[in-house]
Amino acid sequence: MRGPSIDWGIILLNPGELMGEKPHGHKFIDETFYFAEGDGKMIIDDKEYAAPQGSVFLCEVEEMHNIRNDSEKPIKIIFIKGEYKPEDKI
Question: The whole model's pTM is what?
Answer without folding.
Answer: 0.92
